[in-house]
Amino acid sequence: LRGKGQPEIDPKATISHIAIYGAGIMGSGIAQVAAQSGYKVTLWDVTQADLDRGIHTIRTSLARSARKTGQPADWVQSILSRISSTTDQLAACTSADLVIEAIVENLSIKQDLFSRLDKVAKPTCIFATNTSSLLVADVSAKLGEERKQRMVALHFFNPVAVMKLVEIAYMDGTSPELLALLKAWVHDIGKVPVLCRDTPGFIVNRLMVPYNIEARQLVERGDATIEDVDTAMKLGAGYPMGPFELMDMTGLDTGYHIMKAWYETAPGLSGDPRFKPSPEMEQMIRDGYLGRKSGRGYYVYDK
Ligand code: 3HC
């Protein structure tokens, strides 16, 4: 996007304050990496308890990095001082240059959030969703045309502090200038951007979800055990985690919501029986087997 001879873009000239909606695993991770790179961050969630949990996650992750990289004693606190938190949904974004939404994977809840923020955010504010399965076109459906042109997906990966990739998914009306700015911003927070058209699952989930489904079906058919599938993919394919370890880390409910959304509505994918959540999967979710976050999924974890 940047032709030869054009100046480097300084993202900090346009983006200094970032509002992040959702203080869960993804939202707190995004808040951490943004603050670590010098941005002022406001983190929003529904309750103070949600925010406290999010800030605790950030503090723990920063402390881990500080130990690894031998940072001075005040390093963690200096980064945390750039993050404020609030349960006031509208106030969180009034002075933001970039909004990143990482709330529950539910289309109408996301649409309603963005539509409320649209009324109070600066006209220049960029809107981004961290959706793992929905289309930016659908999430932005209730926005005015001007804001739609400033709306993309910025899709991060778990654990955010470690995973180097950010997918930037764009719509037909997204300007090259906005994409160039966001690419520069992603580089500035120490990550690597890739671009993808606004399609279900973008690049990574479009490939990874069918792989996870095949792994489940292999075990549901009784062809191999969970442990052997994980060992096979780590030692035979060089993946850092097996598919069941990975599903436990990302959350079985996350995988379920992606499959359900694709099976029900995704263009080109809806009605595909591969994506119909199996009764076994639905039962596990009903019984609270959500993965690491609930202490049990395919494996059992110390809380
Ligand atoms: N905060 C800070 N640092 C962390 C961290 C955290 N939360 N978690 C791990 N680290 C650091 C460690 O300190 C360590 O640093 P070092 O290399 O300098 O020593 C490094 O990361 C590796 O950590 P560990 O040694 O503890 O663990 P592993 O070597 O087993 O790596 C892993 C852990 C990075 C999670 C690796 O197993 C991995 O890459 N797994 C695959 C993860 C993946 O595929 N994520 C994508 C999921 S899909 C998704 O998120 C999309 C969504 O839409 C569903």
TrEMBL record:
Record domain 3-hydroxyacyl-CoA dehydrogenase NAD binding: where: 17-199
Entry keyword Oxidoreductase: yes
Subcellular localization(s) per the UniProt record: Mitochondrion matrix
Main subcellular location: mitochondrion
Residues binding CoA: 61, 68, 132
Gene Ontology molecular functions: (3S)-3-hydroxyacyl-CoA dehydrogenase (NAD+) activity; NAD+ binding
Highest taxon listed in the record's lineage: Eukaryota
Gene Ontology cellular component annotations, sorted alphabetically: mitochondrial matrix
Transmembrane segments: none
Keyword NAD attributed: yes
Domain 3-hydroxyacyl-CoA dehydrogenase C-terminal stretches: 201-301
Site (Important for catalytic activity): 155
SUPFAM superfamilies xref list: 6-phosphogluconate dehydrogenase C-terminal domain-like, NAD(P)-binding Rossmann-fold domains
Pathway: Lipid metabolism; fatty acid beta-oxidation
Keywords: Fatty acid metabolism, Lipid metabolism, Mitochondrion, NAD, Oxidoreductase
Binding of NAD(+), residues: 22-27, 45, 105, 110, 132, 158, 293
GO BP terms in the entry: fatty acid beta-oxidation
UniProt cross-references to InterPro entries, sorted A to Z: 3-OHacyl-CoA_DH, 3-OHacyl-CoA_DH_NAD-bd, 3HC_DH_C, 6-PGluconate_DH-like_C_sf, 6PGD_dom2, Mito_3-hydroxyacyl-CoA_DH, NAD(P)-bd_dom_sf
Catalytic activity: a (3S)-3-hydroxyacyl-CoA + NAD(+) = a 3-oxoacyl-CoA + NADH + H(+)
Signal peptide boundaries: none
Family: Belongs to the 3-hydroxyacyl-CoA dehydrogenase family.
Protein name: 3-hydroxyacyl-CoA dehydrogenase
